[in-house]
Design a protein that fits this description.
about 150 residues, alpha+beta, homodimer, about 30% helix
């Protein structure tokens, strides 16, 4: 049995600047001039697919992904949010949360497609502290609204 | 107030062959010779983003997305699953569930990137009835395991 975690970069290192985390997952900022607000949510333990997680863990992960989405929408007011869990290169469960604008570099294509224009219109990014606080607030609102 | 549903193709029509549905969402097959098993899960009502749904609806939608993932894994044994909710062209909440293989047309890139090779190795697709039954079974296992 090969220990997959030995060669996994998301097991060895954080994978970016952590803006929020708990025992189960961490929220990283992705610094990309074309995509202010771009975040990743990484499951702390090495699993490959969403369906490898028990339901309770999947729901926790998606509640964090959606809290990041809500936080980015409230802070940056993008035209659209893109969510994706791919993991073809790094098969350790993680989600991309990408604010999109009609005039960004690839719109309306996914950010992995050929660019549609030379560069995105420069936009202010959210400060780390503001993003952290907005994630905490979104998680509290979700849990407060359902308990 | 503009009625967004008038111009929305996923409000006007199913958007593909329905393999399973309930009152809240439908599972469509995407016929793509490079990507056997490719499915979409479409929210029946017009909303744009995951965070526009109340938590209970988000959880339902993700339980169906993950049931489709589990069904495709058991039927087709892909090397990886890709999940994405983009909606840049059709901003009506829907998920792509895409089985991936190491020798498919775009691997390890997302399917929206430039192809890595001329075509995928031909593979058998899942029959509609088998996919339907595997989705029903995956949903039953999820709910049975948690009630």
């Amino acid at each position: 049995m090969v220990d997959q975690t030995l060669n996994c970069e998301l097991c060895r290192e954080a994978g970016g600047e952590i803006v929020w985390q708990d025992d189960l997952c961490r929220v990283l900022r992705v610094r990309d001039a074309d995509y202010p607000g771009f975040c990743r949510v990484v499951w702390q333990r090495h699993v490959q697919e969403m369906s490898d997680l028990p339901g309770v863990d999947r729901r926790h992960l998606m509640s964090v992904v959606c809290a990041v989405e809500a936080a980015l929408r409230s802070l940056l007011r993008p035209d659209k949010i893109n969510l994706a869990s791919l993991g073809n290169m790094v098969p350790h469960l993680h989600w991309h949360i990408i604010p999109r604008w009609h005039d960004d570099r690839h719109f309306p294509q996914p950010i992995w497609a050929s660019p549609q224009r030379p560069a995105s219109t420069p936009r202010a990014d959210a400060r780390d502290a503001a993003l952290h606080d907005a994630i905490v607030q979104a998680l509290a609102e979700e849990h407060g609204g359902e308990l």
